[in-house]
Write a structure and sequence with these properties.
Length: 176
């Protein structure tokens, strides 16, 4: 099973300092709070746009025609979460600073790596199917039960559901 806190991407120097992108629930929540969009829905749209560009032998510039640049900036910003000594999340750069340092060529090189790193915190289609059809089980030391996804499609916050991720998109993400 996946541990989302282990998904990281070293992006090298950015805004004068080496940065690491993190893919955890604080990242997802920060993205949703800034954009008002569901994280997995956006990632699904982004993955589909990347897959289409790859399948049609198009340019990554076509991706920028399909998904919002402000959302891409928010995604990079949200992934730049850092943790202090007490494990509290902080975002050291403002959205404007992140946007100042992003360029289309840089994003074209970052997007495939970002999607590959982020996909390690998204379950594979087989894991989703297993979770939906199985009872909770315990791991070998009995401390971390694996719980299947809830049957209800209504989010806990009562908001709009992100919809089912296309299996083709998930397969593409996991192959990257």
């Amino acid at each position: 099973m996946i541990n989302p806190t282990e998904a990281k991407l070293n992006m090298g120097e950015f805004a004068g300092k080496p940065r690491t992108l993190h893919f955890d629930f604080n990242t997802y929540a920060a993205f949703e709070e800034k954009t008002g969009k569901h994280f997995l829905e956006y990632i699904s749209d982004l993955a589909a746009a990347l897959a289409k560009a790859q399948r049609d032998e198009g340019s990554y510039v076509d991706v920028f025609r399909s998904v919002s640049i402000s959302d891409m900036r928010a995604l990079v910003w949200a992934c730049m979460v850092e943790y202090d000594a007490q494990d509290n999340p902080t975002w050291p750069l403002s959205m404007a600073t992140v946007g100042k340092h992003l360029t289309l060529p840089y994003m074209m090189s970052l997007l495939p790596r970002l999607m590959a790193a982020g996909s390690s915190s998204v379950p594979a289609p087989e894991e989703v199917r297993q979770a939906q059809g199985s009872e909770p089980t315990e791991d070998t030391d009995g401390e971390n039960p694996t719980v299947p996804a809830p049957e209800s499609s209504t989010p806990a916050d009562g908001g709009k559901t992100s919809g089912a991720l296309e299996e083709e998109v998930l397969d593409w993400i996991n192959e990257s």
